[in-house]
Design a protein that fits this description.
about 525 residues, disordered N terminus, alpha/beta, 8-stranded parallel beta sheet
Length: about 525
């Protein structure tokens, strides 16, 4: 599988993109932290998997107060991961293997160790340096109250989004205090980010994922609760992204935005032809394992993308949400940050069966598919001992939210090797049964979920680029056809279901029953 894949125009419309959380992917130098050397060593694995691109969570220099989403220097790779030269080698080596690179940009905020913020602290109240951020005097008789009552972006957090300095100024941080928000009304902020985009496009990256893409613009008065929302989905954002699109077009680059919005029409505005190419589809990610709800999520997603001609994206899991296998084995199979809790029971056998079927469902849909590292191994959410939790979500909730570390545990590569072949002693503890999920063990098992993913990605072109047409099916069975006569059937009912007329069974997430029927929680690809 070589560079011929790059001949595809607008490759991102139907790509399979693998998310790499570098810190937990593979440890090349044995220090317990995943790094770029580890990724480079595993490029053959990713090539065999068949993915079109890799999306990397932030690898920049960072104090790691929020998993690298607190960036101190966009033009330097964090020493824990490697060097800029090594990132350039990785981008080039992956490209030679036919795999593109997508990097992560975090435009809402920077680290409190960023040179701009350190200069702002040193310069004092009223200085030009502070105009790059949101510094304000407080309310109350002595300025002792925060400038407004905006809520934190960490669900369950009771802490304010303002931090007071000894000089009396407060600064805005929608996330942690170590992540001060930038002032996007300042031209220097806009210019700097356009320069950052060019920096990475010139090093060969094919695309950029935009973190918290709907949060950048703030109400200029920083008022308590104006309408529209003081910091979500403000109209000023679109001019920013039109400028970004002009930069990307210079390099034939693409964007994927993290846009959490309930209004389909507002969501679609980000995907107009002169703005972002794609955006993540969170309605599908958070949807329960329920035929009617899934069909609605699919129909709604396709409908909201159609007016702007943008491709849909499909994702089941990422570095922020509960692993698919665990979620689908629970009584509540949806996902909501507000309902995360310690000790939620799950049936992993049931969850695995459903996750295998969901993989075939998502890979058969029109558009691009993103999947998070370890999903192809069927990894469950890990229970992290409280004294080893690192995620600020846990601490800012007062210990009630288990945080996101459970889906960030370092991957198992070799069943017989120390630490399941990850490298040195991992920065997060691996569960005792992690070797059972190891990539080398699964590669040797034809029935493994790893080999299911490999087969599905290889067969995915059979579905072509055409639209989706729903087929008649029993209640709680999803059945649809795509171009080239390829069919997908998913049985979410409580009993086995018959298959529609077909000439060939291409792939199934599990065996058919003795009568050739599709068992519950099983998916199949057919040629009509």
């Amino acid at each position: 599988m070589g560079p011929s894949r790059h001949a595809r125009k607008e490759w991102w419309r139907s790509a399979v993109i693998y998310q790499v959380y570098v810190r937990s992917f593979a440890d090349g130098d044995g220090d317990g932290t995943g790094d770029l050397a580890g990724v480079r060593a595993r490029l053959p694995y990713l090539t065999e998997l068949g993915v079109d691109a890799l999306w990397f969570n932030p690898w920049y220099q960072s104090p790691m107060k929020d998993g690298g989403y607190d960036v101190a220097d966009y033009r330097a790779v964090d020493p824990a991961f490697g060097t800029l030269a090594e990132a350039e080698k990785l981008i080039a080596e992956a490209r030679e293997l036919g795999i593109r690179t997508i990097v992560d940009i975090v435009p809402n905020h920077v680290s409190d160790q960023h040179p701009w913020f350190r200069a702002a602290l040193a310069a004092g109240p009223g200085s030009p340096e502070r105009e790059l951020f949101h510094f304000r005097r407080g309310r109350g008789e002595h300025g002792e109250l925060p400038p407004n009552d905006w809520p934190s972006q960490f669900v369950g957090s009771t802490e304010p989004v303002w931090r007071r300095l000894p000089d009396g100024d407060w600064y805005l941080h929608l996330f942690t205090p170590e992540q001060p928000d930038l002032n996007w009304a300042h031209p220097a902020v806009r210019q700097e980010h356009e320069d950052i985009l060019r920096f990475w496009f010139e090093r060969g990256v094919a695309g950029v994922r935009i973190d918290s893409a709907a949060l950048l613009a703030k109400d200029p008065d920083l008022a308590d609760a104006p309408e529209p929302h003081p910091f979500v989905d403000r109209d000023e954002l679109h001019d920013i992204y039109r400028s970004w699109r002009a930069v990307a077009d210079e390099y034939d680059g693409m964007f994927v935005g993290e846009v959490w919005l309930p209004d389909p029409e507002r969501f679609a505005r980000y995907l107009r032809p002169d703005e972002l190419h794609t955006a993540f589809n969170f309605s599908f990610l958070s949807c329960p394992w329920h035929a009617g709800r899934l069909r609605t999520a699919i129909d709604t997603t396709l409908a909201e993308h159609a007016p702007v001609g943008a491709p849909a994206t499909w994702v089941l899991c990422n570095h922020d949400v509960t692993r698919t296998v665990t979620r689908y084995g629970r009584a509540d199979t949806g996902f909501d940050f507000a309902t995360k809790a310690f000790g939620t029971p799950t049936d992993l056998a049931l969850g695995t069966r459903r996750a295998r079927a969901a993989a075939l469902l998502s890979l058969a849909l029109p558009g691009s598919v993103y999947f998070y590292q370890g999903e192809e191994l069927g990894l469950p959410e890990a229970d992290i001992p409280r004294d080893r939790v690192e995620d600020p979500m846990y601490f800012r909730s007062g210990g009630t939210d288990p945080g996101r570390d459970g889906c960030r545990v370092p991957l198992p590569w070799a069943a017989e090797a120390p630490y399941a072949g990850f490298g040195g002693e991992p920065w997060l503890p691996q569960p005792a049964d992690w070797p059972e999920y190891a990539a080398d063990r699964q590669a040797a098992d034809p029935a493994s979920i790893l080999n299911l993913y490999r087969a599905a990605i290889g067969l995915r072109p059979a579905f072509g680029d055409g639209p989706l047409t729903w087929l008649p099916a029993p209640e709680d069975v999803l059945a649809f056809a795509r171009a080239e006569g390829a069919l997908c059937v998913v049985n979410l009912s409580d009993e086995s279901a018959g298959l529609p007329p077909h000439t060939e069974l291409l792939l199934s997430s599990g065996p058919l029953d003795a009568d050739g029927r599709l068992p519950t929680d099983t998916a199949v690809w057919l040629r009509g």
